[in-house]
Amino acid sequence: MAASQRLLTDEEEVLTANRTFYAALHALDIALMAQVWLHADWVKCLHPGWDLLVGWMEVRGSWEEIFRSTGQMMISISRPLLHVAGDVAWISCLENVTTAYQNDFSSVMVETTNIFQRHQGRWMMVHHHTTPLAEPPPEASAPVQ
């Protein structure tokens, strides 16, 4: 089999699904976001400062609200830790999120867990959980002399 025809590993497929999720965020694209998520009544999402959302319709509504109120979103991830266990996989990572609004912007560092389930041969997001990290105290970020 030619290298270009080789099958992707589960890890590569999950990482691709995760990249698609972040591409949807960056593009503020609800149609692309809908392609990433499993449309089930038990999926869950926890945005910083929000109550837990349960079911695809609530999750979709939250993304629509976020995309409607956001002018631009830049997210870079670091420290991705991936684990695949059968038909379930999760990625824990740090997100550096900068969001632009009409006359302002905000930046925050967020600890994130994205959980995927293999459904009909595709890795689909079933849970997105974010927790903002506390700002380091001023003395922790001061240069050492």
Describe the structure.
The chain has 145 residues and is of the alpha+beta class. It has a single domain, classed as Nuclear Transport Factor 2, Chain: A (Roll). It is built from four helices and six strands. It has a six-stranded mixed sheet with strand order 2-1-6-5-4-3. Helix 1 (10-27) packs antiparallel against helix 2. It starts with 9 loop residues before the first helix and ends with a helix. The model is unreliable at 137-145 (pLDDT under 50).
Q: Which descriptors would you attach to this protein?
A:
alpha+beta, 4 helices, 145 residues, 6-stranded mixed sheet, 29% helix, disordered C terminus, Nuclear Transport Factor 2, Chain: A, 6 strands
- How far is the N terminus from the C terminus? 59 Å
**CATH structural architecture:** Roll
What fraction of residues sit in β-strands?
35-45%
Instruction: Write the CATH fold name.
Output: Nuclear Transport Factor 2, Chain: A
Order of helices and strands: HHEEHEEEEH
Total of helices: 4
**Largest sheet: number of strands, sense, barrel closure:** 6 strands, mixed
Average pLDDT reading: 89
- State the secondary-structure class: alpha+beta
- What's the β-strand tally? 6
Low-confidence stretches: 137-145
Give the overall form.
globular
For the largest beta sheet, what order do the strands appear in spatially? Answer: 2-1-6-5-4-3
What fraction, in percent, of the residue positions are helical? 25-40%
Q: CATH class, anyone?
A: Alpha Beta
